[in-house]
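Thread: quick sanity check before group meeting

JM: Hey all, I'm pulling together slides for Thursday and realized we never actually wrote out the predicted structure for the chain we discussed last week. Dropping the sequence here so it's in one place. If anyone has concerns about the input, flag it before I start.
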Amino acid sequence: MVKEGKRSVFVPSNTKRIAFFLLADIFISLFSLYAAYLLRFNFTIPDPFLTHFTKLAFILITLKILFLFLFKNYSIIWRFYGLNEAKNLVLAHLISYSLFAFIVILSPEFFTPFPREASLLSIWFSLSYFWENCVSLSASFQTAIPRTSC
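JM (edit): ok, ran it. Output follows.
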């Protein structure tokens, strides 16, 4: 027999949904940024570029999560995820990356050495956007499937 406390862990709630998507976004962002570094440096990242990776990742992911919250991407009903939510996801990314580029331009010594190639940010943007949309759409499909009872 399952105790009531253990059963409540598996009951869906708004807090658990937000926590899941927040952790998924952080993981996807870290993975995408590291993959972009790997692609930029042909899978051998020089040590000087890795020294500032955590600082860069922290700032960029913080900006991204902040704008995802501001655009209410964590408070949507996944069953009705559509083009408007995808547009908000793109806008949140564009604004967070633009703000990050502005921060890098204002204080380049804070990020030195930093691979300033546009391909790095564009690769990270596209990888991150692709995987976040996959997670969002899979949640939308999951809630859209009718459940039958036995």
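AS: nice. The CA atoms of residues 101 and 107 lie 10 Å apart. The mean pLDDT is 78.
JM: adding both to the slides.
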